[in-house]
Design brief:
The protein is mostly helical. It has helices at 12-30, 40-45, 51-64, 72-88, 90-111, 121-130, 135-149, 152-158, 179-182. Pfam families: TAT_signal (PF10518).
Length: 184
């Protein structure tokens, strides 16, 4: 049985593609075109979570699970799954919408701006720490870890090759892939 190595190899072609994408993204960010919380169409499409709450939650989830390799679409998909649950459960919908308002209130108290408008991640994390004992915080953190990391597209971005039981387990698939230690 042939086992394929699914890890991304960095070659000239991948370097050029990622460099071009990085330059374009940097240009858009520096010109003020792109903002982490500027997804009105996506937020308006949700049914149970209000658009303002959705934008706040999106920034919150990115701060809870920060990955530079992941675009906003992965986080939006994770929040959309939570919105589907909230559409079936009015209590959850209230908890998410009211929790986002409470997060914005805490941000205004600590940093004089709504949560999503605080530019520095460290300042937003300070606000998150002020609410980390609330049921709202625990619910979002617990649900989003599953919703975000259960996406096979995210697995590929983070280098996880998926389950290995059908291939004989990790002993035969990646257990001895210690490329980073061979040169030591």
């Amino acid at each position: 049985m042939r086992v394929l190595d699914k890890r991304t190899r960095f070659n000239r072609r991948n370097f050029l593609k990622s460099s071009a994408a990085s330059v374009a993204a940097a240009g858009a960010v520096s010109s003020g075109v792109v903002s982490i919380a500027s997804t009105p169409a996506w937020a308006d499409a949700l049914t149970a979570i209000k658009p303002d709450a959705a934008r706040t939650l999106l920034v919150m989830v990115r701060d809870l699970y920060p990955h530079d390799r992941l675009g906003g679409a992965y986080y939006e998909k994770a929040l959309a799954s939570m919105d589907q649950e909230a559409a079936k459960d009015a209590t959850l919908a209230d908890q998410l919408n009211e929790g986002a308002v409470a997060l914005d209130t805490a941000a205004r108290r600590l940093r004089s701006a709504p949560y999503a408008a605080i530019p520095a991640e460290a300042d937003r994390v300070t606000v998150l720490k002020s609410i980390e004992t609330t049921p709202f915080f625990h619910k979002v953190r617990g649900d989003m870890v599953v919703a975000l990391y259960n996406q096979p597209e995210v697995w590929a971005k983070l280098g996880y090759e998926g389950a290995s039981a059908e291939y004989g387990g990790y002993i035969h698939r990646g257990f001895d892939d210690l490329d980073w230690i061979k040169d030591a």
